[in-house]
């Protein structure tokens, strides 16, 4: 297996990757069968999005030299990196496709591996109409916003917003409100990942809303449509017994 080394520009990642550079016969990323990604979760998301943009998708094995490292593996023996990648277990990650239409009628498309979130741009609460598969499920949700998370992203922003943790392979999405004002007691919903979720911004001139797909933001949106992009499936590699599924279990039993 031909491997490429991709390292974050942070000082911690660069220092940690120094020994890795001599541990393997690396090839350029465009020639690799898999990538070894050194950094944190944010850098891994950046690399995965670059693959989605280029159209050339290969498995990615993360080495955590960031903060949380939920999508990464622990840094162990640097000399055995090729063996670790060869023994790693693949985990399929399917992103969301966000189609955001601005108030000016311009359409933007971005992918989200973790979540798509709609956020108020001013001190005024956002007011959103919520549709699932074309049917209005909530005529008006007022609050800071709302998000739709994948199972892989359910332990990120979604969990911080008191959304549910979704097991990998559950075939579900989390629809989670952000500081809801009305209806105040609505906790969100769990939807099948076959569903298309759409939001229409009410009073957009007075209550502007931004839509964010992972790291890509579109401001002053009028409508946002979200659906699973199955044709864009990605693969993460994890050490045996340390995959995303185990980490999702661990998150649910923290006290």
Mean pLDDT across every amino acid position:
92
Strand content: 35-45%
Number of domains: 2
> How does CATH name the architecture of the largest domain?
Sandwich
Low-confidence stretches: none
Straight-line distance between termini? 41 Å
> What can be said about the biggest beta sheet?
11 strands, antiparallel
Topology, number of strands:
16
Oligomer: single chain
Radius of gyration: 19 Å
| CATH fold-level assignment of the largest domain | Tumour Suppressor Smad4
Number of alpha- plus pi-helical segments: 5
Structural class: alpha+beta
Mind telling me the CATH class of the largest domain? Answer: Mainly Beta
Outline: elongated
H/E topology pattern? EHEHEHEEEEEEHEEEEEEEH
* The CATH homology group name of the largest domain: Probable inorganic polyphosphate/atp-NAD kinase, domain 2
Helix proportion range: 10-25%
Concise overview:
The chain is an alpha+beta fold and 255 residues long. It folds into two domains: 3-94 and 233-252, Probable inorganic polyphosphate/atp-NAD kinase, domain 1 (Rossmann fold, 3-Layer(aba) Sandwich); 96-230, Sandwich (Tumour Suppressor Smad4).
């Amino acid at each position: 297996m031909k491997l490429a080394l991709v390292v974050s520009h942070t000082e911690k990642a660069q220092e940690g990757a120094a020994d890795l550079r001599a541990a393997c016969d690396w090839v350029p990323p465009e020639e690799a069968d898999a990538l070894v990604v050194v950094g944190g979760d944010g850098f891994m998301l950046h690399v995965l999005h670059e693959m989605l943009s280029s159209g050339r998708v290969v498995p990615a094995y993360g080495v955590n030299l960031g903060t949380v490292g939920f999508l990464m593996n622990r840094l162990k023996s640097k000399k055995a990196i090729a063996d670790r990648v060869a023994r790693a277990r693949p985990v399929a990650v399917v992103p969301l496709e966000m189609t955001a239409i601005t108030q000016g009628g311009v359409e933007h498309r971005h992918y989200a591996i973790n979540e798509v979130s709609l956020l108020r741009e001013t001190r005024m609460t956002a007011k959103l109409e919520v549709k699932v598969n074309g049917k209005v499920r909530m005529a008006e949700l007022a609050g800071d916003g709302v998000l739709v998370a994948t199972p892989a992203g359910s332990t990120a922003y979604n969990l911080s917003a008191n959304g549910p943790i979704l097991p990998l392979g559950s075939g579900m999405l989390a629809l989670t409100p952000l500081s809801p004002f009305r209806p105040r007691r609505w906790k969100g919903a769990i939807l099948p990942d076959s569903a298309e979720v759409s939001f229409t911004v009410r009073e957009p001139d007075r209550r502007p809303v931004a839509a964010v797909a992972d790291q890509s933001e579109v401001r002053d949106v009028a409508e946002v449509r979200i659906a699973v992009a199955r044709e864009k499936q990605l693969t993460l590699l994890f050490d045996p017994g340390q995959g995303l599924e185990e980490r999702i279990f661990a998150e649910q039993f923290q006290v």
